[in-house]
Design goal:
The protein is α+β, with helices and mostly antiparallel strands. Helices cover about 30% and strands about 25% of the residues. The chain folds into two domains: about 30 residues; about 55 residues, no CATH class. The chain binds zinc ion.
Length: about 100
């Protein structure tokens, strides 16, 4: 059990945010570890399967290549890092 730093109510262990007021709960990390708030992004192209069926493979490849380049540039411009591209999806994080 921890105490919320904002509303000072008790919060059960394991909560990252106070269920009463929504404030982040700071929990001491075990020695050698560090707790961080991170932002995760998962983006997927809607209708990509239909698009791939309707276009020539080379056109789809060029479109996807351009999409991956733009996605990486936009993510990195905002301090993020692309973790992986999976098919037409991109997974990224920012710390
Ligand atoms: Zn609270």
């Amino acid at each position: 059990m921890v105490t919320c730093p904002s509303c000072h109510r008790e919060v059960a262990d394991g909560f990252a945010f106070c269920p009463h007021c929504g404030a982040p709960i700071e929990v001491a990390a075990p020695a050698g570890e560090e707790r961080k708030l991170v932002t995760l992004l998962f983006a997927d192209i809607t209708g990509s399967t239909g698009l791939a069926d309707a276009l020539d493979a080379e056109v789809v490849r060029d479109l996807m290549s351009e999409y991956f380049t733009i996605a990486r540039e936009e993510i990195e411009a905002r301090g993020g890092t692309v973790e992986k591209f999976i098919g037409d999806a991109v997974g990224a994080r920012a710390v």
